Amino acid sequence: METRFDLFATQTGAKLAKRFAGLHGVLHESPLSKTVVELVSMRASQLNGCGFCLDMHAKDAVAAGEDPLRLHLVAGWRETTVFTEAERAALKLTEEGTLLTLDGVSDETWAAVREHYDEEETAALVCLVGLINAANRLGVITRQKGGAYQVGAMAQFD
């Protein structure tokens, strides 16, 4: 499948991308760890099939010093020993917040999140799950392909 549309090449798309990048910047300024930001972004992107976002977040995570082995294991996080309990809570919230059911996020998952994250971190985590899902949907709708992302490329929209 070919890319349908270059959203960033339009005036409206570029303005929206700038706002998205600004929101992403707010998340990176929050007390939520950059590791959790990238793990959550990768897991949602896996679930949503967004190759562009997977490419971007994997490369940005490695550039920030994340262990590539952990990135390879994100899809099977339940069956590994490489993620902390806090990261596991964030990944579970990501899955339940991405694959919404009528019940939404379970009380068990919410309790785990609140056990590991304070008010500010929880606010950032909830917003991150919503934002990465929105970004994934833009990428999937327009069939943005992964593979060509260069680390720091989104800085043009800051």
Automatic annotation (TrEMBL):
Pfam families: CMD. One of its GO terms (molecular function) is peroxiredoxin activity. Keywords: Oxidoreductase, Peroxidase. Transmembrane segments: none annotated. It comes from the Bacteria. Residues 16-96 form the Carboxymuconolactone decarboxylase-like domain. PANTHER family: 4-CARBOXYMUCONOLACTONE DECARBOXYLASE FAMILY PROTEIN (AFU_ORTHOLOGUE AFUA_6G11590), BLL7811 PROTEIN. This is Alkylhydroperoxidase AhpD family core domain-containing protein. The lineage of its organism: Bacteria, Bacillati, Actinomycetota, Actinomycetes, Pseudonocardiales.
